[in-house]
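Inputs:
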Amino acid sequence: MVSDDFDVKQSWGKAVREGLSAAWPICLGYIAIGLAFGVIARKTGLSPLEIGMMSLIVYAGSSQFIAAAMLGADAGFLPIVLTTFSVNLRHLLMSSSLSLHLKNLSGGRLSLFAYGITDESFALNMSRFHGGHWGWRPALVVNHATNLTWIVSTIVGGIGGEFIPAGFFGIDYALTAMFICLLVFQLRGNHHILVALVSGVMAVVLSLIIPGNSYILIAAFLAATTGLLLRKTKRHSHEKGEKG
Amino acid sequence: MKGEIIPIIIGMGIVTYIPRWLPLFFLSRRRLPPWLIDWLGFIPAAILSALILPSLVTTGEPRHFLWVKPDLWVAIPTLIFALKTKSLAGTVVIGMVLYWLVTHLY
């Protein structure tokens, strides 16, 4: 948990340094995906300015790719907005989980923080919060440094992305490798390992059955609930055992 | 069609921001029951696993199984490295180098 004491002591200068030194794996990944998005969006007829506006206002990788594809297929306002909504519902879980570590912040700061919640910033900030020595300031720096990287990369991709060699030095794998390590950080005990296994297997099965990416939300929701029930029954049987 | 792009972007922005903002804004300033805190504690592991695993073993649209993706085979040594070293920077670099090697030698 972030204590007030710790937060007050932490200056912005230190927060920027800490945030940037934590954010670089995300930035690498966003450069790769952002350039690719820029190239694709340009091909569907968006100008670099429109690409930049979309990255700034929407700031959600997968739904931007889907929107570009739908715009290319001449889809209208409602289908695109509804698809975006369903694709990004998973952020409900991430935002709820982050709320445990962002106590005593003003509404304005919370609203500013919420803008920068992505799969990547969520995973990174959660593992840092758990490790202690992390406050809302460096977390906010992570959010906005990665946001800026995303916006610039998509615009650059839109202007001249086809001239950049694809797959430069394994950059496409930066985010996967980061996720793998952040998952390792999250495996604190058998219950967490079991939850991760249940969630992963369910996600694979659901992803083969349901189109779109709602499988992430459903699998994570059910797996976390499994973990909670397991902990409850364990605790319950433990108490019974002590009495008996 | 062309004139519609700005409203589409704004509409997308609103529906993306709401799920990010709503729980943070309303849960942060409440005292949560212990079971909810426990449940939320499982969410990062669950989300990460649900993000990673399908991307390693499925491909295409509609999605189907594919065991021979380099993503999966690179993930195994990357995972072992992460378990042994607990180093985020090291894991990212090792993963990238292995992926680059595999996709270039393949």
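Chain B has a mean pLDDT of 92. Flag for discussion at group meeting.
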